[in-house]
Amino acid sequence: MTDADLTFGDGRKRISGPVDWTAPVSGNQIKIYERTHTTQNKKQLFAVNHDGAALGRVYDPRYQTSIVGGAKFPLGTWREFEKRAFLAKYAKPTGKSYLRRMTIEILKLDFEAHGIKHCLKFRWTTAKPGKNKQRDDNNYTYCPGKGLVELEDN
Hints:
Shape: globular
Largest sheet: 12 strands, antiparallel
C-alpha cells in the first residue's frame, strides 16, 4: 500500500495512511486510509479490497457499521467500458448484517476534464443482491492533483 498524505479541496479535505485499524465488530486488524473533511468534522475509512481491484469503505460511523468487500474507487488495471461487481457485507455491533452488491463501470479513461488531462470517469452503483432497484447510482470524475471534479446523480 502506497503512503498517502494529501490535502485538497482548498485545504478542507485530507487523505492519509496507511495506518493500522481494528474493525469494531470483527476485531480484525487491517491497513486503512483515512479521509477527513476538516470543516464538517467527518471521517471516512477506506481499504484496498481483497483482490486489489478497488478501494472501498470499511467503516461507516453514521451507522456504526463495519464493511467487508466494499468497492467505491477502481484500482489497478481497468479497460474503458469494463464493469465489475463486488459483494459487500455490512455488520452492525448488534450482530445484524446485510449484503450489498456494488458495481464499478469505467465510462472514460485518460481524457481531459475542466482543463485537466488524464482524468477518469466511472459509474458506481449499489443495490440489494438480486434486486434491480439501485440504492445509489452516480457517475464520478476524478482528475490528477484535483480529486473529485464532477459528480452526477443518475
